[in-house]
Structures are given as structure tokens and as C-alpha cells.
Predict the structure.
Amino acid sequence: MRNAGFMKGFSRTATKSPTNAVFCMRSKHIELSGDSNTGLATLTMSSPPVNSMSAEFLAEFVDAMKRCETDRTVKGILITSAHHGKVFSAGLNILEMYNRHDDSLRTFWSNVQEWYLSVFGCSKPVVAAINGHAPAGGCALSLMTDYRVMQSGKTLGLNETALGIVAPFFFVDMMTRAIGQRHAEISLLEGKMFTAEQGKVIDLVDEVVELDAVHEVATKKLLQLSKIPQPAYHLTKTLIRGGSLNLLRDQRENDIKTFVNLIQQPKVQKTMGMYLEALKNKKK
Ligand code: CO8
């Protein structure tokens, strides 16, 4: 497939090969590239050191997803990390939730909601190439995709309770869909992290491979999904996910209030402060 309109509007870089033209855009935290032969786009999180998700990061992520959604020549989206073999994403940026005022908390959470709606609600195939650790929001991101390929030995999970915070209802919903009620209940209550291998046993990940194979295996799966006719793919996704997406669309303001109220509680702030300190002291 060759199409001059592929990724129209993106700033292009000079990356070109004789067989397939590759167009790229880069914002501060996100890289988006497209292969005009396959129609596959790759969204790479590139925010050192650990792809923690600030309000700005999330806004750029949503922008990239919207570009993929509206460009008819994009047939599927691969989500991965530039910190190959280390971290897929450390989840939401804890600094955005620590010692912050109402307005910035509200903006941050609204961006979290948009991010979920743009990935979980994407009409096209989306595959996660999880090439590193994926705690909390990193795990949630992988759950928003249609298929998860993960590097052997790395960890993922919704560990929010271990930080003294609560995973939002839409994270809980995605976890329950993937691993079932009982596994979700026990792992969410404990804030449990799983190795990729443990995750595979309970369907938290679909395939576990060595680092070198993560991109290849994930791309092969995405290519296969991208050949399933539209609008059948989109409509089926809507049948399966529409109820959950609409629940958030209808509850956005309440959900923001719940987040702001919870996160500002002194005890929650204290635990987050201690957690941040522990992360910093890890290196000492
Ligand atoms: N937010 C902000 N900063 C972070 C985060 C984060 N999520 N994770 C790591 N960092 C910082 C560290 O503090 C450190 O900073 P500095 O260099 O200034 O000391 C730097 O990033 C590098 O971190 P590490 O040295 O720990 O990097 P490693 O490669 O050794 O380890 C890990 C990578 C495994 C990802 C590790 O950093 C880690 O476990 N991070 C914490 C992950 C986590 O628990 N995230 C939870 C985020 S909360 C979330 O996503 C959902 C919240 C839902 C909220 C609902 C409320 C109602």
C-alpha cells in the first residue's frame, strides 16, 4: 500500500528506505511513525527516564491517537517504549498528584480520562509491545490495547493500593475483563505485581517472548488484525467495550471529583510522599 496521504499533516523526518517510505512526527514525549507499505503506525513513548505520564505527556498521547484514528490510511497502531528492555511505562506521574491544587489535579485527571477513551475506544486494531516494566498506569495502558506481547522477566500489574491510592473504576473494569473477577479482586486488593510469565497464566498478557522478539511478534499480530475488514472490527469492539466507555463518558465530572477528593486526603498525600522518597532512595 502506498498512499501520499499517509500521516498527512505530520512533520516528516528524513527516515526513508527504498521499499517503504516512513513518515515520523515527534513531540516532547511521543514519537509517531508510519509505514506506508503496511499501514501500521508505531506510537513510541519517549519520555526519560521511565515514561511517567504527566498531563502534558497524556495530551500528546491523545493527540497522536487522534491522528491515527482520523487518518484513513492508518490500519493499526503499535504502542511501545523507547526505553527498550527497561521500562514500558512507570504509569501516571506521581508528581502530578502530590501537593497539587484543585485546578491542576482536575486537568490531569481529565487528560487521564481522554487517554483511556482514545486508546480503549480506538476503532482500529491496537497492540502493545511491552518491552519493559509496566506498573500501574503502564499496565492500564496495555489493558487498553487489543493484544499484549511482553518481554520475558519484566513485571506488570495494578499496584495502586500499595501506594495508598485506588485504581479508578475504568482500570478495574479493564483488569476484570482481562483476568476475571477473582484474579482481579485479589490482585487489586493486594496491589500485586506479576512477572510476564505469571501474567500469561492468568491472561493479563497474551504472549511472552525474549526482548529481541517483542516488536516482531507484536507487529506480526497487528498486521494480522489490520487485515480484518472494517467496519466489522470497529463495530465488534464497540459491542464489547461500548458500555464501559459510555459509563465514563456519562460520569466524567463525578469521576474527576472522586479523584480530587481522594488524592487530597492528608493520609493519601503522606503515603505518596513516602513512596516518592522510597523511589529516590532506591539508588542510594
Ligand atoms: N512518577 C513519577 N516519577 C517516577 C515514577 C512515577 N510513576 N516512577 C519512577 N519515577 C522517578 C523516580 O523517582 C526516579 O527519579 P529520580 O531519578 O529523580 O530519583 C526516576 O523516575 C527513575 O526511577 P527508578 O530509578 O526507579 O528507575 P528504574 O529503572 O530503576 O525502575 C520502575 C523503573 C520499575 C518503573 C520504577 O521506577 C517504579 O517502580 N516506579 C514506580 C511505579 C509506580 O508505582 N507507579 C504508580 C503510578 S500511579 C498510577 O499509574 C495510577 C494511579 C491511579 C490514581 C488514582 C487515584 C485516585
Observations:
- The chain has one domain: 22-281.
